[in-house]
Amino acid sequence: MNPMIRKELRQRMRERRGWLLPSLYLLGLGGVVAIAYNAVANISEELGNEPQGAAIGVAVFLTVTYTQLTLLLILAPVFSAGTVTMEKEQRTLPALLTSLLSAPQIWWGKFIASLLFLCLLLVSALPVLSLTFALGGVSPGDLFVSLGMTLLMLASICTVGLYCSSFFRRSVHSTAVTYGVIVLLTVVTAVASFLLHWYWESGLGPLDSRGDPPGYVKAPLYLNPYFAVTMAFRRHEPGFPDWIISALLFAGLAIWTAAFAMRNIERSGEQA
């Protein structure tokens, strides 16, 4: 095993948040499940229908999936954006660079250690997601798609956090910029797509407002994590799947930021 992974994992699991965060995380998801279950049941009763297990199962599954994605996107910079800057602040990075570990190995150890704790939270929520199988409406394929796309989103954000951590000298700056990137990917892309859709529907666009919206209306959403997960559930639609485009873009973002982060780590020894 990469010694950097072993060091980071031991350090993280000895901290108080090593057991506190998973407990609060599962407590929050349990509350979301209760709220979603009661909301669907109450709506069905108000409509004069008997609550259907499949409808409740789908509502609970989607609610937990998006809530889990939101919580993990919030937590991802906490575990990735300060990994290299902490070495700079403690003046241990030069010694680390003079060890037998290369810059790619240092980056890989930091990346895996950051992602593994997020995977711990992701796996710990499996019993909550599996409750939907008893209610119906959700297949094991939907569960694997949800976990796979969520893991890809988290890996991409972790690489962005590591890049910011390798670029800046203080953790507060790298963490703030990483959160700014998350806001850009989630909020700004949604607002941009909404404005483009309004521009197209108003008849001011270059195309007639009849039929399906043109490609530029949906283009900003390809870098939106929520859009990627949503489109993955609709993977059987005809044509080239949107979720594959999103997955390729996020994979490209991860590779690009990882390459520049390794270069920054290698050059940090000259700047220290």
Structural write-up:
- Helices cover 79% and strands 0% of the residues.
- The chain is mostly helical and 272 residues long.
- The protein has one domain.
- Helix 2 runs antiparallel to helix 3 (53-80), helix 3 crosses helix 9 (171-201) and helix 11 (225-233) runs antiparallel to helix 12.
Features:
272 residues, mainly alpha, globular
Helices and strands in order:
Elements: H1 3-14, H2 17-46, H3 53-80, H4 83-89, H5 93-97, H6 103-124, H7 126-135, H8 140-167, H9 171-201, H10 215-218, H11 225-233, H12 242-271
Helix pairs in contact: 1-6, 2-3, 3-6, 3-7, 3-8, 3-9, 6-8, 6-12, 8-9, 8-11, 8-12, 11-12
Helix content: over 70%
Instruction: Give start-end ranges of low-pLDDT stretches.
Output: none
Distance between the termini: 28 Å
Give the total of domains: 1
**Counted beta strands:** 0
- Write down the overall geometry: globular
Mean pLDDT: 83
β-sheet strand percentage: under 5%
Number of discrete helical segments: 12
Q: Determine the structural class based on helices, strands and strand pairing.
A: mainly alpha
